Amino acid sequence: MSDVTEDIEIRLLLEALHQRYHYDFRHYAQASIRRRLRQARQQLGFATFSAMQEALLHDEAMLPRLLGYLTVQVSEMFRDPSYFRALRENVVPHLRTYPSLKVWIAGCSGGEELYSLVILFREEGLEERTLFYATDISQDALETAARGIYPLDRIALFTENHRASGGKSSLSDYYTTAYGNAAFDKSLRDRVVFSDHSLVTDAVFAEMHLISCRNVMIYFDRALQDRAIGLFRDSLVRNGFLGLGAKESIRFSAHGNAFGDFVRTEKIYQRRDI
Ligand SMILES: C[S@@+](CC[C@H](N)C(=O)[O-])C[C@H]1O[C@@H](n2cnc3c(N)ncnc32)[C@H](O)[C@@H]1O
């Protein structure tokens, strides 16, 4: 199959996915999407992307299978501990000045980032006054996040990250183990709203004090990154905080001047008071 034909077929497949199911991957970074779709085509046993498109249009069972290939679900608790340390040391003192708080974890995947933040807020005495919104486009990811159960073999890394982030307690205070898994305490979810939300197609969540959206925009093209950053700007209170992933930045965004650097090395920004 020539590259030109493959490009046409991929474009049509993504168009079909959007028109039929409203999932919009048309402006995700092309190289990564092409790689994922090639893998899906091979593993699902289709000779061409056109055949895959036909199956997708006529069989709803294809949708979750394809979505599983299109989104990357890699995550870990207290990933990049220095980011969480900076939140604790630099952002929390500002958050303390508010009587009530809203935090949005956009692209929360299986919940690792969410639990990290809830634990951090509990340790800092802010959990009780906070509402957490955990959103993603993947239903599977949201279900995993709402369960809060992770294989025990991941816990050593999570524990080490928690310690390196300045954790004030032992991570083992927050989970119980059984059958090779660690189940995080359901009280950690008391103040969490889980919701299906796409940064590509959905609207703002208003009045957030902190938005943490890490390792999601790396999969977007420039126009889509601009859309997401515009959404964050409009969702934050004045002087609210935005935390991105280590490889992400608002520097080149059309909305870059709506934010100032807060902890530059950790990609933590503050919405300007304008
Ligand atoms: C690599 S994971 C990042 C997980 C976590 N934030 C972290 O940094 O560890 C990327 C997540 O973004 C989600 N995602 C992809 N496109 C999205 C969109 N348009 N809106 C919201 N979430 C999206 C994926 O489903 C996936 O759960």
- Percent strand equals 15-25%
DSSP summary, beta strand count: 10
Note the run of SSEs as H and E.
HHHHHEHEHEHEEEEHEEE
Q: What's the N-to-C terminus distance?
A: 53 Å
Q: How large is the count of helical segments?
A: 9
Which ranges are low-confidence, i.e. pLDDT below 50, for 5 or more consecutive residues?
none
Multimer state: single chain
In the sheet with the most strands, the strands line up as 6-2-1-7-8-10-9
Helix proportion of residues, in percent?
40-55%
Biggest sheet statistics: 7 strands, mixed
User: How confident is the prediction overall: mean pLDDT?
Assistant: 97
Could you characterize what this model shows?
It is a single chain. With 274 residues, this protein is α/β, with parallel strands linked by helices. It is built from nine helices and ten strands. The chain has helices spanning 3-21, 30-44, 49-58, 62-70, 81-95, 112-123, 139-147, 155-164, 222-235, and strands at residues 101-106, 130-136, 149-151, 175-178, 181-184, 192-196, 208-213, 236-244, 259-263, 268-271. A seven-stranded mixed beta sheet has the order 6-2-1-7-8-10-9. It has a three-stranded antiparallel beta sheet with strand order 3-5-4. A hairpin with a 2-residue loop joins strand 4 (175-178) and strand 5. Helix 1 packs parallel to helix 3. The protein is globular. The protein starts with a helix and ends with a strand. It binds S-adenosylmethionine (SAM).
